Amino acid sequence: MMESDDLLCGRLYRAVTMLEDCGEFAALVPEVRSNFVYARENPQSREDVLAVDGRITVVDGMPKAAGRLKFGASSHMARLMVEVHKRDGRYRAGVDFANNPELADWLERYCQEKGWVFSVMDRSTEPDDVKAEEGASMPWKVGKAFEAAGGKTPKMFYETGAVGKEPVTVLIGGDPVEVAEEMRELAVKWAER
Amino acid sequence: MMESDDLLCGRLYRAVTMLEDCGEFAALVPEVRSNFVYARENPQSREDVLAVDGRITVVDGMPKAAGRLKFGASSHMARLMVEVHKRDGRYRAGVDFANNPELADWLERYCQEKGWVFSVMDRSTEPDDVKAEEGASMPWKVGKAFEAAGGKTPKMFYETGAVGKEPVTVLIGGDPVEVAEEMRELAVKWAER
Amino acid sequence: MMESDDLLCGRLYRAVTMLEDCGEFAALVPEVRSNFVYARENPQSREDVLAVDGRITVVDGMPKAAGRLKFGASSHMARLMVEVHKRDGRYRAGVDFANNPELADWLERYCQEKGWVFSVMDRSTEPDDVKAEEGASMPWKVGKAFEAAGGKTPKMFYETGAVGKEPVTVLIGGDPVEVAEEMRELAVKWAER
Amino acid sequence: MMESDDLLCGRLYRAVTMLEDCGEFAALVPEVRSNFVYARENPQSREDVLAVDGRITVVDGMPKAAGRLKFGASSHMARLMVEVHKRDGRYRAGVDFANNPELADWLERYCQEKGWVFSVMDRSTEPDDVKAEEGASMPWKVGKAFEAAGGKTPKMFYETGAVGKEPVTVLIGGDPVEVAEEMRELAVKWAER
Q1: Residues 6+ apart with CB under 8 A from D117
Q2: Is the pLDDT of residue B104 over 80?
């Protein structure tokens, strides 16, 4: 049976709802707001990636999806997911969240405890021709994240060093509900630190 | 494969979205607002029926789901769906909408054109012991709707004659997306009449 | 200084927010949902009455305004407010909520304790020519509510006995924030009964 | 008469609604989302500044306020407004929106045409002790914006050159409805360029 878009939608709906009900996640929503994405099998472009229209913001101290789930609703996270999937076909779901020096240190230790591959990419090393070419940055960045992880697929990674860009951390997995569970556990641990 | 709650949710999400995008349906949202329900296989109670929390209201002239999809979010429509399913296991989805004398006449002709079984139940004939017993009205009403349809399963029906109760029309089917398509077509035809 | 629409809007915004934050009010939202209205000075028609577009529904167990505050967004409650204001110019704000036999008895006692004038109008006595004439029911009903209160302005009233109409109770006052405070206190007392 | 919080709220509500209804503004909502703020007279801290909880995001291609208007709901824009007000007491309302090299050039010309004072502050010149001290950046930045404008109050300004920070443009004025009108006109002109 071919997996249907409806099943994807129901699965991401459950995952987003789990984050909306997690007050601790509110502290990890970045200035640019979070998105949560789930790609069809073999995604070719952002149009194959389901995401939250308007992203996940914080209202009354709780995470809140601003709009509907739609294919094509995300640009950044959707293109990232497509690039990750090219390198490791098991990964189809992801969420982005905050990053700052204190959090980054804590996340690195958290990943060690969980046995997760963690990676960082330094955008200050991004070549000018990559920056200049439309659409070239994302493949370069995701490539760097895998490279910095010694060729393994990073479970979590972030980029750093870009002028005018807020750094965000990305957590990826095969299924959005699993990723939501991992994100909730992390958010609770961060709140309790 | 057992049908999952996630698939139900994705399917109803699509159906509700279709109605939200149908401006003509706004004119058919009743005072009590509409709900759209989808039951699990062999539903036993309202907890087995997915529905829109807060119902579907009208905002800026367009139908709008007030809250999330949740199992147990509906009382009236969910219990109706459970009763219908007991009599005809093919029916698991339904939406309610407005009723008034002009609309009722039009709907009866519309059902004839579509070849749909149409039924009416007159609540002024409801026995006092049925009214008095908690939870007895819905089985009686749904039984009447089937009875008035000569034992066939009505595709559409409404009740009439109750003091203090707004009459609503119910459209049912096997799948919420099919029901949403039927509802949209009906709403457009009613707007064009 | 002429009172501005902006001041009206800010005042009703505060009042609606107070009800949204009152979980006990959720139990008093009727099937037709509540609205909260605030009329300009000397309102002539519903277009002079500010109200919640899409009414106040219940989501996640809490009252929630479905849409924006807009002049003209209400029909029933706005026309009621215009009629009340014709008879007593001090009254410009009102909210409607549930009614049923148990609640009605309790409300009558509650009004006695508060020293509020309470009134009931029986729509089964509505003359046929009033029913037949477009727009004639509301003046007749409001007139009956004042008449049944011995010519005094009722602080609270409800109608009863109409086929196909859910009975609702109406609480009115001069200012929406005052009415919201009164409604909150009543809802808390009803929850504690 | 002391100006009331309700009047502030009604005025900002109207202003935010105007932007929500302006599709062209959606193209100017930055990654960090926009906020719209309105300060009480003589604001001392962010708690004296009304703002949109959850900011203004983009849903279905239209700007949308994510949550309610609340005092204290904004950090960045509220503190900016307090600092601006210290230097020029006429200014109490402001909205932030996108910035990028193409837009920045266009905005500079737009301000010239309108006769508006325009200013830029380069954060790469921010001293380390300012960066290090909690709460010192905003006074420094706003001071720089006035300084770069030759001591005049800039009607519009943006900052540039910060690592990890998306640059945003700020438009300020005395009244939020006036600012909303100016923002709408600008957004329409940018869409037509």
Answers
A1: D111, D149, D152, D153, D154, D155, D156
A2: yes
* Beta carbons within 8 Å of D87's beta carbon, 6+ residues apart: D142, D143, D146, D153
Is A38 within 8 Å of chain B by CB? no
Residues from chain D that touch A33, judged by Cβ atoms under 8 A, are: 32-33, 57
User: Chain B closest CA to C104's CA: distance in Å?
Assistant: 14
Percent of chain D with pLDDT over 90: 85
Rg over alpha carbons for chain D, rounded to the nearest Å, is 16
Residue A128 pLDDT exceeds 90: no
Q: Is B14 on the interface with A (CB under 8 A)?
A: yes
A-contacting chains (≥3 CB pairs under 8 Å):
B, D
Q: Give the integer Cα–Cα distance in Å for A164 and D163.
A: 6
Residue B3 has pLDDT above 70, yes or no: no
CB-based contact (8 Å) between A27 and chain D? no
Provide the pLDDT confidence category of residue B1 given band limits of 50, 70 and 90: very low
Confidence (pLDDT) at A1: 41
What is the band of A124 on the pLDDT scale with cuts at 50, 70, 90?
Answer: confident
Of A33, A68, A166, the CB nearest to D164: A166
Cα separation, C170 vs C144, whole angstroms: 14
pLDDT confidence of B164, banded at 50, 70, 90?
confident
- The H-or-E segment that residue A171 falls in is strand A169-173
Average pLDDT in the A39-46 region?
Answer: 96
Can you tell me the ipTM of this complex? 0.92
pLDDT value of residue C164: 82
The reported pLDDT for the residue numbered C123 is 82
Contacts of B128 (CB under 8 A, 6+ apart): none
Residue with tokens 């009447």, as numbered in its chain: B144
Collect contacts of A120-125 with beta carbons under 8 A, ≥24 apart. Answer: A120/A145, A120/A148, A120/A157, A120/A158, A120/A159, A120/A160, A121/A145, A121/A148, A121/A157, A121/A158, A121/A159, A121/A160, A122/A159, A122/A160, A122/A161, A123/A159, A123/A160, A123/A161, A123/A162, A123/A165, A124/A160, A124/A161, A124/A162
Per-residue confidence (pLDDT) for residue C3, from 0 to 100: 64
CB D117 within 8 Å of CB D125:
no
Interface test with B, best of C57, C77, C99 (most B CBs within 10 A): C57
Tell whether C132 lies on the interface with B, counting CB pairs under 8 A: no
Judged by CB atoms closer than 8 Å, whether chains meet at A167 and D164 is answered as yes
Among A1, A2, A6, A175, the residue to mutate for chain B (most B Cβ within 10 A): A6
CB atoms within 10 A of CB B87: 14
Beta strands, E only, B55-154 = 56-59, 62-65, 69-71, 93-97, 118-122
- pLDDT category, D3, cuts 50, 70, 90? low
Give per-residue pLDDT as tens, C119-173.
998 888 888 888 888 788 899 999 999 999 999 999 999 988 787 889 999 999 9
- Residue C96's DSSP bridge partners are C170
What's the pLDDT score for residue C1?
41
Partner residue facing A14 (CB), from B6, B14, B17: B6
B167 touches chain C (CB under 8 A): yes
CA distance D33 to D19: 13
CB–CB contact A13 B17 (8 Å): no
